[in-house]
Specification:
This protein is an alpha/beta fold. It contains 11 helices and 8 strands. An 8-stranded parallel beta sheet has the order 2-1-3-8-7-4-5-6, sandwiched between helices. Helix 5 packs across helix 6. The radius of gyration is 17 Å and the shape is globular. Bound molecules: zinc ion (2 copies). One zinc ion binds next to loops.
């Protein structure tokens, strides 16, 4: 059994960028309803808000001020805070791994701009945070959302201690050339056209690369717009996400002592998130 944290604040459900992140509250409720929080090794932590100083480690003051004037400021703070707190607890050894349920996306956020339901680099901000407070230096980010993670790629394009494996081919390549960088630590692969081929792609491209890279910690940006009832590849059923979680968790076990943070903004309908999230927590916590 593993010690698993689930980071979620009600604000992330209530104030979610809902046209995109439609299954946030139901995803969390699905974990509750499955009785997982009565397990001794699974804990719900109410996400804390991030501070402006923490956000300014990547984003410009001008962009921070701009987001502050929108309705997405508060939900962004609690989404980022969840990832930062999860990162702290895993690196400190209080938790083995964690699932963070956010109310906004993050991978289309650059230092001073963003699009597509993203405002700040929700997961990316964990990297300077971890480097400042812990000895961790090397990070792997696996992104299985439908779309190219142009923001993450741009922010870390010159950072060889960040391995970025992005599944996106054919979906939303940004025109910004900085988001197109590919080299030994930055790469993009194709999505599958059904559960089996998506899972196979992850199995083929992720474990060996991450093991060879030897990160201190692994992040999985688990976009769910690949679900058949969402707006992206529309290729997957809800069963694909726990199956991918098994591969990614095994990869973390074999490459960084199991230190894994799964971040999702639940961008699929409630019936999908309420099935997938408890399934993923089961796998993270090694229940069954
Ligand atoms: Zn997407
Ligand atoms: Zn990509």
């Amino acid at each position: 059994m593993k010690k698993t944290g689930v980071f979620y604040h009600d604000i992330c459900g209530k104030e979610a960028y809902s046209s995109l992140a439609m299954g946030v509250a139901d995803g969390f409720k699905g974990i509750e309803k499955a009785g997982l929080f009565s397990r001794p090794n699974i804990t719900h932590y109410e996400s804390r808000p991030a501070t402006e100083e923490e956000i300014a480690r990547i984003h410009t003051r001008k962009w921070i001020e701009e987001v502050k004037r929108t309705q997405w400021w508060r939900v962004s703070l609690y989404s980022i805070g969840g990832v930062l707190e999860a990162t702290e607890k895993v690196l400190r050894g209080e938790l083995d791994n964690a699932l963070v349920i956010a109310g906004v996306g993050g991978h289309h956020a650059h230092r001073d701009s963003a699009w597509g339901g993203c405002y700040f680099s929700v997961t990316g901000l964990a990297i300077p945070h971890a480097r400042e407070h812990f000895k961790a230096r090397r990070f792997a980010i696996v992104d299985t959302d439908t779309h190219h993670a142009d923001g993450v790629r741009d922010i870390f394009k010159d950072d060889d201690e960040v391995l970025h494996i992005c599944f996106c081919h054919g979906y939303g390549w940004d025109e910004d050339p900085d988001s197109l960088t590919t080299n030994e630590t930055k790469m993009c692969f194709s999505h599958g056209h059904n559960d089996a081929s998506e899972i196979e792609n992850v199995r083929r491209e992720v474990p060996e690369r991450v093991k060879k890279f030897k990160p201190d910690m692994l992040f999985w940006i688990m976009g769910m717009d690949t679900h058949q009832d969402s707006y992206g590849t529309q290729a997957l059923t809800e069963k694909a996400y726990p199956a991918m979680a098994e591969i990614i968790k095994d990869t973390a076990e074999q490459s960084c002592g199991g230190k894994l943070i799964v971040k999702t903004c639940c961008n699929a309908p409630p019936h999908a998130t309420s099935y997938a999230l408890p399934g993923i927590v089961n796998i993270l916590a090694e229940i069954d």
